[in-house]
Write a structure and sequence with these properties.
This protein has 303 residues and is α/β, with parallel strands linked by helices. 41% of the residues lie in helices and 12% in strands. The longest helix is centred in the last third of the chain and has 19 residues.
Length: 303
């Protein structure tokens, strides 16, 4: 290492930087302390305690399973898992399940997976689809709500968002977008609602709303910003659904696990009190295809 490099490194860590890894105070609290030990330089002790005490409602345990795994590894210990579906073989290309889970309720399989990572995690399982009659108590029990309910269940999504808006609870809607991911953050008191974003009636039932028309509104706004293969895949699914046949758009594992990375970072920044986080109607996108084609950093050049 030359003198200039040593100077840059010293400036980045400071004169009083510790040369050994000082453990969290929480390290004395086994086994949690060992689980979150490597968070140290990115997560303060106060923030880690907030993470540990925050209860997450994960509504939709398909793509939501990637976020759940990220969350439990970050140190979240309190979960409500809500989903009425069971694990199918076609889920295994992108969701955090194995062949041993096929046929089992997603909430039960995911709860076991999280427990395998942190046996002390407190997990409530709600094996049912959400609706206007059952969603309010779940939202009331949670601090932050994470929405990855299948878009085919528009009634469930709207019921969840309505309950969050009524109870002033923060909610993150997340979706896999091809090889990347997107998140929409609705904080308490947000000026934009899910209904407004998707051109739905401000109140009342959406049982008769047309899924194709509802989703097409947003796709049309995004088309010029998305990878053409994503627009083509979603357009294909919507065309099939115009004939009344349910057809979720295809998804791949990099996109699904990008959801976990993006949403995991977002929820930690929310707990950290970051006031600069973009909120609805803005869509936060982690576009991996765009990253690969964007200018990189030439490691042989100095600034």
């Amino acid at each position: 290492m030359n003198t200039q490099q040593e100077s840059v490194l010293k400036d980045s860590v400071g004169d009083n930087a510790e040369t050994t890894c000082t453990p969290f105070k929480a390290d004395r609290d086994e086994p949690y302390g060992r689980l979150i030990l490597r968070n140290k330089d990115y997560v303060t002790e106060d923030l880690q305690q907030k993470i540990r005490n925050t209860k997450l409602l994960i509504a939709g345990c398909g793509i939501g399973s990637s976020f759940a795994e990220v969350a439990v590894r970050l140190g979240f210990e309190n979960f409500i898992l809500a989903d009425g579906d069971v694990v199918n073989t076609h889920n295994l290309n992108r969701q955090a399940y194995t062949t041993a889970d096929v046929g089992h309720p997603k909430v039960k399989a995911l709860a076991q997976h999280l427990k395998d990572i942190n046996p002390d995690a407190k997990i409530e399982e709600f094996h049912d689809y959400l609706n206007e009659h059952n969603v309010a108590p779940l939202v009331a029990s949670a601090d932050i709500i994470f929405d990855t309910i299948d878009f085919l269940d528009l009634t469930g999504i709207v019921s969840l968002h309505d309950a969050c808006r009524q109870q002033q609870k923060p909610i993150i809607t997340a979706l896999a977008i091809g090889w990347g991911a997107g998140c929409i953050y609705f904080p308490p008191g947000c000026g934009c609602s899910f209904r407004q974003l998707f051109a739905l009636p401000e109140t009342g039932s959406v049982a008769n709303a047309n899924y194709v028309d509802t989703f097409a509104v947003v796709i049309e706004r995004l088309a010029s910003r998305l990878d053409p293969t994503v627009v083509q895949a979603v357009g294909k699914a919507l065309t099939i659904m115009e004939d009344g046949i349910p057809c979720p758009a295809c998804q791949v594992s990099p996109g699904a696990f990008s959801v976990g990375a993006l949403a995991g970072t977002l929820v930690v920044r929310i707990l950290a009190g970051d006031k600069k986080i973009k909120q609805a109607p803005e869509l936060l996108i982690a576009d991996m295809s765009a990253v690969l084609l964007s200018p990189g950093i030439n490691l042989l050049e100095n600034d």
